[in-house]
Amino acid sequence: MSAATENTATVFFAGISTSATVLLLYNGFIESLCTRTLWLLKVLVLFISTWQLLSTLVSIHFWQFFGRANDISNTRPKVDKDNKREFQVSSLYKLLMVYAVGTVLIYTVTVLFGAPLLNKQEETILFSLLLASCAILPGCCIFTTNWNRWLSVLTKSSLDQSVLEKSSGRVSVCTLIGAWLGAFPIPLDWDRPWQVWPISCVIGALVGYAMGNGVTTIQLCWQMLRARRKNSRMKLP
Amino acid sequence: MNLYRLTFLCLISLFCMHTASLYVFIRGFLLSRSELGNVSQCIVEKETLSTDHRKNLVTYLTPSFKSAKCLDPAANYSCCPSSSFTSVVLLIIDGLRYDFAVPSHDSSQANLPSYANKFPVLGELLVSHPRSAQLYKFIADPPTTTMQRLKGMTTGSLPTFVEVGANFASSEIKEDNIIDQIVMSGLKVTFMGDDTWTGLFPNRFHRQYSFPSFNVKDLHTVDNGIIDHLVPEIKLPDWDVLIAHFLGVDHCGHRYGPRHPSMAEKLNQMDRVVRSVVAELPNDTLLLVMGDHGMTKTGDHGGDSADEVDSALFVFSHKPFMDAKRNQSTRRAVSQIDIVPTLSLLLGLPVPFSNLGTIIPELFSGGGSTPSDLKGELSVVEALLLNSVQVARYLDEYTKTNKDFPYIKYKQLKKQLNSSMETWASLRHNISAVNISASINEVKDQLINYLDSVKSMSQQVWAKFDVVAICGGICLSVLTIMAGMVITRNIHCIDMIDKSGTTATKWFTFSTLMSSSMLFIFFCILPDLSAISVAVAMLITVTVYLMSQAPFICKANLCRPSTSMPLLESAPLFVVVVYSLAVFSNSYVVHEDSTSSFLCQSLIWVLFIVSCQHQAPPLKPKREQHKTRPVQFDLYNIITDYRFVLFCMAIGLNCVLRFSQEFWRCREEQWDCELSRFTQPLSAISAMTVYKNTRYFTSLLAVCLLPYLLRLWMRHFGNLNGHAISVIAVKYALPLMSVSVSLYWAFTSLSQSIIDKLPSWQHMMFPFLVYGLAVCCIGVIVISPLFIYQPEKMLYAEKDKKLIPQVYYQMNLQWQQHMGQAPTERHAVTVYGLATVYSSVVITVLVIAAVVLLLLLGDGFAWGVFLLLTSMFLFLEMYSCVATSQVSGIDKVEVPWWAVVMWQMIAFSGFYTTGHQASFPTINWDAAYTGFHGDYVNNIVPGILLLLNTYASYVLFALATPLLIIWPFSQGRSLAKLGFPTAYKTNQRDEELQKQGEFVLQNYDQQFRLALNRLCIMVVTAHGLKVLAAMASAGLHRRHLMVWKIFAPKFMFEGVGFVVMSATLMFSYTLVLRVHGALGRWVNKLQQ
């Protein structure tokens, strides 16, 4: 039952994320990003981080928030002991710590990849915050300091992942690849305002984010539809 | 023929084929325009004239104005105008940029650069002689190198790219040119200055004072030599044309840049020269002061930016020659080749045959006092007419032999000329008409328009490409790379089998080799058959390839190596594809420094993530966790974790790549690039003493650290024991080399005036010491390549005073006595340094090369080279870390593709770390003079120095390439000392191999040799792919606006870099084989 609720929550939030991001990118967003970069980035970071935090926490702890804790032991896929899910305030503290470390790491790697170190610091920091919010915040909520799970999600090595874990891993990989691909048009001589650092990377990251969420939505919808059809077919006779 | 020999043959043939493809492509791509041997003459036989022109000549050039010579229909039209001047003084100031010469009227002196208003004589003459002085902006045709410019300024032809490389090996001009015309008409030419002229025009000059031009550091020899002879020569009666070519300004630009105070000094000197010439100038002599090209903000030239192209032309005579109406404040721009017809017609000579320039009209107006003077206007039109007819004749002649010009355009131009001739003819009949002046102006405009369109057409058409040869070169290169891929895929080093059968590889190799040699021969001997030969060769190759591959294709699924890491195979492939495609976009070529670095870093992270997927257990067992209280966070476990170590190395490698950005040089297309301080030589930094000292001493640290670290490393692994000659070389010669390098840096940081006073042996001492020692060291290492030490057999009890061996000895003795055996004198053989026997040699040669390269690169790049070596080391560590954890035992000998790709990518990004860009103005010419004070007998030595400087990174990485095989086995790895990671599946055999270190390779002789061949083939193929991409992009973009500025230089840099890399790789390959052989002999001797 709980796995189903988790699936539903994941699909729900992923769908909303996808459509919101697509709408955002569609609707004159890029022009305003070019003109009011810092302001818009701040808003984006704030919005996305809150949204990711809320949606992930809600999808993890859905059962806890809405009761029905008893169902869990039977239906939940088996995960190792470290991965127990109870909402605690201390885990929130841990989460924020990991998030901060992740942001610093992303900032470092961004600068190492060639982002300017001395000028445009604010842009770079905001960009890494955005990337951290999109890519690692769900992971922070799910795994906190369980480094082995982190690595296994990033490298897709273990198979026993829940739907939420899979989806968050996919979103982070897609976001990172999107941001990476976003750097490609920077050297081109097209003289477009969005070629300036970090706008193209932000757009790339958002597109990647939307795509990752979109794939999750479609896949889960498909699965659920199939499951329902199966159920109804089984019930019929 | 065994597999080893076969692969060696493959390696050689691949190298030859790559070179052949480069050659074939170059033959097609860098074709020049064909030079016509025709010479303009005063008497032109009627047959050589087309009927149109003869009619034109008879109809239109018969007298309508009062030029006596043209009255005679038998006279040739080329010589019609009487000469306006009897003699000419031509002062060429090399590198005279337009703003050096033009007087600046900016009131605020503070804002002016130091070179402004340092040439005031021109401005003064313009004011005092408004009718006999004129200043023009003088636009050069790129490439703006001196020899190309001289060729253009004497023949009037447009330059083609191919001759650029021959800048310092000037060859005689064979085309009709103004010097020949002057000499033929019996006038006498005196020349003084740059010896490029005497190379271009041997035996033409009546008297010559030439001075060597090659040494850029020498600001004064040429100029002072000219100044000594110039004024006395002017006073002599026996010259008609006097040419003086000053080099000081250009050399000053190369040395210090235009903003340096010595540039102001130099310009002042030129000012004084012009003043003295003006004072002595005879009355009917024309003085021309001009530059051959400009210079960029850094003082370089060769490209086509406005700063490089804009030069100045100043015309002066004591006799007025212009209309008074000319407005002095507006300065017209004239093309550099315009000087050819102008000078010819002013001297009354035929215009050189292949000239495409237009006369400068105002110089022909004869100096009439009133603007409405028809005589002046008429002579202008007459001169223009002569000029146009000459150009038309050239076009006719050229079209007879070549099909370069589009036919429609050619016809259209012809019609245009005819119509203006007709206008002229109609004008001739009513010369007294009222609006004669307007009509004359109309004809004039039409003619100028005609000449301009001819010029622009030829500029478009001129670079004539042989498309067949271009395609042939590209196809050959593709074939070669395919061959390389097939060969590396089919060779399996471990099982010693060739998976699809030796025959396939053999056949393929031979067929490609055969067809390539066929191509080569056809191109060399029978250029006309090129198309057929390409087709035939391709056909043969492809057929044989398909035939040979038939069994392979059938078994393709069986042969495909099962990759355990698909991402690690696909990511480098993706990067290679992206990197190759990037060459096709001019922006990515311009920003290739960032691109290569970015892709490199991405690959490093991919490598990290992929190797994290395969969790290898740490060697040291995890601490026992208390079962009651589980430890959540254990620093020890994290630090010793294999993934953490990899992470640190990835971050380190990233940092190294990021820091190396500080050493990038700017190319002119990178408009937002800030000039790196490290690219400036120390002597150019005059103001900041503190910075100068800091930089010098930090660089000193780097150059001292290199031999010190080597020594530390070698001593640790026991390679520095004993008194072998190679050990002594490393111990003493290498530190001496770095001391010499640092002393030489100190020497070069002296100011120019002090250096010039020092005798030349002081210039040469330190560099020669370094060269000599390097050659000696490498020679010694080649002669005795084993850094191992076998101490004499001795009795521990007596000789060795060390504690542990004594204890061991005593225990052994007692044990034997206890067992009832007689004590034996038999000892195990003790040898030092066997576990790093290969890598010690390679690394030593690497460090020697690095020190020599530091000498050539200058002190600014000391840390750049250090970073390069660090990145090499980190990558090797990372690679061997992954390799040892994935693959066990001797299988590590087979280097995977991803490692080669990453290795090459780091090498490519290293090209920029050593302060280079793929554009001609950024070539560091100074390197050619390190230790050689100017005058060279030939170009080989400076060429080699220049290549070493430019391709420092390729040389270092090619030298270190065998380490890719050696390092995973080496005990010299820093991680091996720490004890991890172990092999994936640890077993007894692996541990034994691990203990033996590099000596394992000796035991697996065949595998090692095969792997070495395979690695070399892979490296050559990977580099060849980059050359192929550059080649294809240059070929594809051959009509692109930027081709000569971006794509062609890119291709040429890559092509030459490939040859340098391959040569170095061959050296490294032989060196490692030499070590291998010597070690084998040593083992045999020991066994006996």
Helix run count of chain A = 10
Number of domains of chain A: 1
Enumerate the spans of chain B where pLDDT stays under 50 for 5 or more consecutive residues: 43-79, 163-170, 552-562, 616-630
- Overall 3D geometry of chain B? elongated
Question: Per DSSP, what share of the residues of chain A sits in E-state strands of 2 or more residues?
Answer: under 5%
In the sheet with the most strands of chain B, the strands line up as 4-3-5-1-6-7-2-8
Q: If interface size is counted as residues with C-beta under 8 Å from the partner's C-beta, which chains form the largest one?
A: A-B, 17 and 27 residues
Average pLDDT value of chain B?
78
Class based on secondary structure composition and strand pairing of chain B: mainly alpha
Describe the sheet with the most strands of chain B: 8 strands, mixed
Question: Which stretches of chain A are low in confidence, meaning pLDDT under 50 for 5 or more residues running?
Answer: 67-83
Average of pLDDT of chain A: 80
Name the helicity range of chain B.
55-70%
Distance N to C terminus of chain A: 24 Å
Task: Explain what the structure shows.
Chain A is mainly alpha-helical. In chain A, 75% of the residues lie in helices and 0% in strands. Chain A contains ten helices and no strands. The two termini of chain A are 24 Å apart. Chain B contains 41 helices and ten strands. Chain B has an eight-stranded mixed beta sheet with strand order 4-3-5-1-6-7-2-8, sandwiched between helices. Chain B has a two-stranded antiparallel sheet with strand order 9-10. In chain B, α7 links the parallel β3 and β4. The radius of gyration of chain B is 36 Å and the shape is elongated. Classes of the chains: A mainly alpha (237), B mainly alpha (1088). The A-B interface holds A 108-109, 111-114, 145, 151, 154-157, 180, 183, 187-189 and B 585-588, 590-591, 594-595, 597-598, 601-602, 605, 609-610, 612-613, 615, 632-633, 643, 651, 654-655, 657-658, 661.
